[in-house]
From TrEMBL:
<feature type="domain" description="G-protein coupled receptors family 1 profile">
    <location>
        <begin position="40"/>
        <end position="286"/>
    </location>
</feature>
<keyword id="KW-0812">Transmembrane</keyword>
<dbReference type="GO" id="GO:0005886">
    <property type="term" value="C:plasma membrane"/>
</dbReference>
<keyword id="KW-0716">Sensory transduction</keyword>
<comment type="similarity">
    <text>Belongs to the G-protein coupled receptor 1 family.</text>
</comment>
<dbReference type="InterPro" id="IPR017452">
    <property type="entry name" value="GPCR_Rhodpsn_7TM"/>
</dbReference>
<dbReference type="Pfam" id="PF13853">
    <property type="entry name" value="7tm_4"/>
</dbReference>
<keyword id="KW-0552">Olfaction</keyword>
<dbReference type="InterPro" id="IPR000276">
    <property type="entry name" value="GPCR_Rhodpsn"/>
</dbReference>
<dbReference type="InterPro" id="IPR050427">
    <property type="entry name" value="Olfactory_Receptors"/>
</dbReference>
<feature type="transmembrane region" description="Helical">
    <location>
        <begin position="97"/>
        <end position="119"/>
    </location>
</feature>
<dbReference type="GO" id="GO:0004984">
    <property type="term" value="F:olfactory receptor activity"/>
</dbReference>
<protein>
    <recommendedName>
        <fullName>Olfactory receptor</fullName>
    </recommendedName>
</protein>
<keyword id="KW-0472">Membrane</keyword>
<feature type="transmembrane region" description="Helical">
    <location>
        <begin position="236"/>
        <end position="257"/>
    </location>
</feature>
<keyword id="KW-1133">Transmembrane helix</keyword>
<feature type="transmembrane region" description="Helical">
    <location>
        <begin position="24"/>
        <end position="46"/>
    </location>
</feature>
Length: 302
């Protein structure tokens, strides 16, 4: 291999659809969706920071989840919306690699944070008397720092695996953003080993986090059997919102990254769901099912 990027200096996106009229309609819908993502998640961040009643580990992590959702959607959506105004959708090689790095940084950070939030709920429900000592501010800060270190390392590994593949043409990506599966298809070499390494890091990370979350909720369910009906209802309300977010996000990640690179019509739909729909649904799920957040928003509004 003589050089990493022999001839390809840019990539061309095919976008979501080849129909111009449908593309314009989708651009309006996704523009509104992006504004709602920004507004909804910023509202949660401001509410958690403003209301002292929400200065607890659960809402501390919820505010960080909203921050990650804003970053996650901002990696792909502004570029996609900008490209809707042009017939030819182009991104430079460096821009593509940068987008891929931050996409996986935000995605892995969200997976790790959702896992930590599951652990937090497990401690709060199963060990309420020791919760203050087990989940104090220092521990929460340490978990958050570990989260970002792990996310950066994971994203660097994923990016390095892609950068070391040669790209000598073609340069057309059948998507609306740069990601590992479509880029692997364009490499001018056998990507079998690279695919195994990527599945081992991304796919197994998602699966391991999912297993940890399932184990946490199994412990929670066992613990709820010994609690009062009121406590069970409150715990179920909180856990149901978190479990729904986990299923939405991790389900898409497992579907995309735990199989070899290929082209399925459902891939674009899955990409839309985990880069746009999930960041929009997270604040909706947590505010509509959480009385404390709703009351804090009302007080902030007043």
């Amino acid at each position: 291999m003589e050089g990493l990027n022999q001839t390809v200096t840019h990539f061309v996106f095919l976008g979501l659809t080849n129909h111009r009229s449908l593309e314009l309609v989708l651009s309006v819908i996704f523009s509104i969706l992006y504004l709602l993502i920004l507004a909804g998640n910023l509202l949660i961040i401001v509410t958690v920071a403003w209301d002292r009643c929400l200065h607890t580990p659960m809402y501390f992590f919820l505010g960080n989840l909203s921050f990650i959702d804003i970053c996650h959607s901002s990696v792909t959506m502004p570029k996609m919306l900008f490209d809707c105004f042009f017939h030819r959708k182009v991104i430079s090689y460096g821009g593509c690699i940068t987008q891929l790095f931050f996409l996986h940084l935000c995605a892995s950070a969200e997976i790790f944070l959702l896992t930590i939030m599951g652990y937090d709920r497990c401690i709060a429900i199963c060990y309420p008397l020791q919760y203050v000592n087990l989940m104090n501010l220092k521990i929460c800060g340490g978990l958050l720092g570990t989260l970002w270190v792990g996310a950066i390392l994971h994203s660097l590994i994923q990016t390095a695996l892609i950068v070391h593949l040669p790209y000598c043409g073609p340069n057309v990506i059948d998507s609306f953003f740069c990601d590992i599966p479509p880029l692997m298809k364009l490499a001018c070499t056998d990507t079998h080993i690279t695919g195994i390494l990527i599945i081992s890091s991304s796919g197994l990370m998602s699966l391991v986090c999912f297993v940890i979350l399932i184990a946490s909720y199994a412990v929670i369910l066992i613990s709820l059997g010994r609690q009062t009906a009121e406590s069970r209802q409150k715990a179920f309300s909180t856990c149901a919102a978190h479990l729904l977010v986990v299923t939405l996000f991790l389900g898409h990640c497992i579907f995309i990254y735990t199989r070899p690179a290929s082209s399925f019509p459902t891939d674009k739909l899955a990409a839309v769901l985990y880069t746009m729909v999930t960041p929009f649904l997270n604040p909706v799920i947590y505010t509509l099912r959480n009385k404390e957040v709703k009351n804090a928003i009302k007080k902030l509004w007043n």
